[in-house]
Amino acid sequence: MAGSLEGRVAIVTGGGGGLAEGICATLAASGAAVAAVDRSLEKAERVAQLASSGRCIALEADVSDKASVDAMAQRVISELGGIDILVNNAAIYPLRPWTEIEEEEWDRVMAVNLKGYFLCARAAYPSMRERGKGRIINVASITFFIGWSGFLDYVSSKGAIIGFTRTLAREVGPDGITVNAISPGAFPTDAERVHPDQEALNRRILEQQSLKRRGTPEDVGNLAAFLASDAASFITGQTIMIDGGWAMH
Ligand SMILES: NC(=O)c1ccc[n+]([C@@H]2O[C@H](COP(=O)([O-])OP(=O)(O)OC[C@H]3O[C@@H](n4cnc5c(N)ncnc54)[C@H](O)[C@@H]3O)[C@@H](O)[C@H]2O)c1
């Protein structure tokens, strides 16, 4: 896909995380100038360094805070020249039986995983509308389709992302902007390390998947780069599973 995103500018939120490694590197290798945005600047800087085959800068922002998101979008516009692609990817995923979830935790999960996607889309939209095209890619999760004990607030937020994706696709379609969701299965990042029994989890995942290898951040990056490219210009409102043939929805 080298060159397919030449001249485009991409924001990747949660840009310091595990899947962001593959997303930022693939978008940058495809020619986009990328901003890896994370609440931890240190983590974003690590990912930006990994994306060394192209241009990737690290920025600090909290996606649940409107002022922080708006300032980040302005910096991207002034430093990289505009916004063409937004990958909404930042999320938190506390593991707890549902009866132990406190109201504060529920609100925090929704603030980062759902409101954060909305705030970033709102901040990126004026630049996309001005350019007459854009790509919004929302990272959801297989857990919405199959249910996953211990993550009631997280899974609820991921289901909401699919409604958000479909409705926003209708709202911004007339501006030439596509909105799609990527729904990853299980990938070996920090998100997985919260599980208490890693060996059992690995076994369970490989049993469930049709393909008997673990997915990589690059697999997700390739899908994001495709959805961001001109080749995907007639695809919008969709949720694409990337799970090695697990849920098949
Ligand atoms: N890894 C998996 O198996 C898996 C499966 C399904 C879905 N997902 C989804 O993929 C996305 C990335 O997950 P990951 O596995 O890379 O997790 P991760 O924890 O490695 O990365 C998430 C990143 O988001 C950042 N972040 C958290 N709160 C933030 C905030 N308020 N503002 C800005 N940044 C914030 C964290 O610092 C972290 O760097 C998430 O949306 C997750 O739900 C992951």
Molecular structure report:
- The protein has 249 residues and is of the alpha/beta class.
- It contains nine helices and seven strands; from the N terminus they run βαβαβαβαβααβαααβ.
- Strands 3-2-1-4-5-6-7 form a seven-stranded parallel sheet, sandwiched between helices.
- Strand 2 (33-38), helix 2 (41-50) and strand 3 form a beta-alpha-beta unit.
- Helix 1 (18-29) packs across helix 9 (217-228), helix 3 packs parallel to helix 4 (103-131) and helix 4 (103-131) runs parallel beside helix 6.
- The protein is globular and about 45 Å long.
- Bound molecules: nicotinamide-adenine-dinucleotide (NAD).
- Nicotinamide-adenine-dinucleotide binds at residues 13-14, 16-20, 38-40, 43, 62-64, 89-92, 112, 116, 139, 141-142, 184, 186-187, 189-192.
- Nicotinamide-adenine-dinucleotide binds next to helix 1, helix 4 and helix 7.
N-to-C span: 27 Å
CATH superfamily: NAD(P)-binding Rossmann-like Domain
Mean pLDDT: 97
Give the strand order of the largest sheet, numbering strands 1, 2, ... along the chain. 3-2-1-4-5-6-7
Largest sheet: 7 strands, parallel
The third-level CATH topology is Rossmann fold
Q: What CATH architecture do you see?
A: 3-Layer(aba) Sandwich
Query: Which structural class do you get from the secondary structure elements?
Result: alpha/beta
Helix content: 40-55%
From the alpha-carbon coordinates, what is the Rg to the nearest angstrom? 17 Å
**How many helical elements?**
9
Tally of extended strands?
7
CATH class label:
Alpha Beta
Approximate strand percentage: 15-25%
Uncertain spans: none
